[in-house]
Amino acid sequence: MSTMNVLTVPPRRVWWLAGGFAVWCSALVVLYALHAIGCAFGWSAGPLRWSLVLVFFAHLAVVGWMWRNFAKARPDHDHGQTGSFLHAAIVWTTIAAFAATVLTFGPPLLLSTCL
Fold first, then answer.
1. HEC letters along 11-70
2. Which one of 25, 34, 81, 91 has the fewest beta carbons within 10 angstroms of its own beta carbon?
3. pLDDT at position 74, please?
C-alpha cells in the first residue's frame, strides 16, 4: 500500500471562488429592491436613476477590488499545483463576475425607470 502526500487547501480559499458572484447576487437583490421601492413610492426618475447608478458602481467597485487583489497576489505554492490552479480559477471567476455585472446591470440603467 502506497501513501500519498495530499496537500489540502484551506476552505477560506475555496470560498473565494464564489466571492465575485456573491457580490453579483447582492447587486441583483439591491438594484431590483431599490427599483421596486422607488417606483412604488413614486420617486422622480432623476434621483431614482442616480441611486441605481450609485449602487451599480458600488458593486462594480467591490468586484473590481477583488479582481485587482487576486490578480496582484502570487499563487499559493505551499499547496502545489492545486494552489496555483485555485488561484487562477479565483482570478478568472472574479473576471467573469465583473463582466456579468457590467453586462446584466449596465444596460437596464439606460431604460425608463418606471412604467
1. HHHHHHHHHHHHHHHHHHHHHHHHHHHHHHCCCCHHHHHHHHHHHHHHHHHHHHHHHHHH
2. 81
3. 79
Residues sharing a CB contact under 8 Å with residue 96, sequence separation 6 or more, in sequence order: 20, 21
- Joined grid coordinates for residue 38: 422607488
Question: In this predicted model, what pLDDT tens digit does every residue of 17-75 receive, in sequence order?
Answer: 999 999 999 999 999 999 999 999 999 999 999 999 999 999 999 999 999 998 898 77
User: What does the alpha-carbon distance between residue 13 and residue 84 come to, in Å, rounded to a whole number?
Assistant: 11
In whole angstroms, give the CA distance from residue 27 to residue 50: 15
Cα(42)–Cα(47) distance, integer angstroms = 11
Decide: 94 and 19 in contact? Cβ < 8 Å: yes
